[in-house]
Amino acid sequence: MSYPVVDKEECIACGVCEGVCPADPNVFKVEDVSNVVNPDSCIACEACVNNCPVLCIKLED
């Protein structure tokens, strides 16, 4: 199963990933300048990848 990996040096903590994620519970939780990722909830829809304004999220196996 694929899961999102955030490049924390590139992440601007804008919250877009958290807002577009349809998984329940949400995969992302924005805290300060990075995202906490809950890969077990990921449904590999790529909404976070496709909507990240700084392209810092990739899906990995």
Q: Which SSEs are present, and which pair or pack?
A:
Layout: E1 3-6, H1 16-20, E2 28-31, E3 34-37, H2 47-51, E4 57-60
Antiparallel strand pairs: 1-4, 2-3
Fold and architecture overview:
This protein has 61 residues and is α+β, with helices and mostly antiparallel strands. The chain is built from 2 helices and 4 strands. The strands form 2 sheets. A two-stranded antiparallel ribbon has the order 1-4. A two-stranded antiparallel sheet has the order 2-3. A hairpin with a 2-residue loop joins strand 2 and strand 3.
Question: Which characteristics define this entry?
Answer:
26% strand; two-stranded antiparallel sheet; Alpha-Beta Plaits; 2 helices; 16% helix; two-stranded antiparallel ribbon; 4 strands; globular; iron-sulfur cluster binding; alpha+beta; 4Fe4S_Fe-S-bd; 61 residues
In CATH terms, what is the architecture? 2-Layer Sandwich
User: What is the overall number of helices?
Assistant: 2
CATH domain class: Alpha Beta
Q: Count up the domains.
A: 1
CA-based shape: globular
The spatial strand order of the largest sheet comes to: 1-4
What are the low-pLDDT stretches, counting only 5+ consecutive residues below 50? none
Q: What would you call the structural class? A: alpha+beta
The portion of residues assigned to helices is 10-25%
Strand count, sense and barrel status of the largest sheet are: 2 strands, antiparallel
- The chain-level mean pLDDT equals 92
The name CATH uses for the topology is Alpha-Beta Plaits
Ends apart, CA distance between termini: 6 Å
- How much of the polypeptide forms β-strand, as a percent range? 25-35%
Order of helices and strands: EHEEHE
Cα Rg: 10 Å
How many strand elements?
Answer: 4
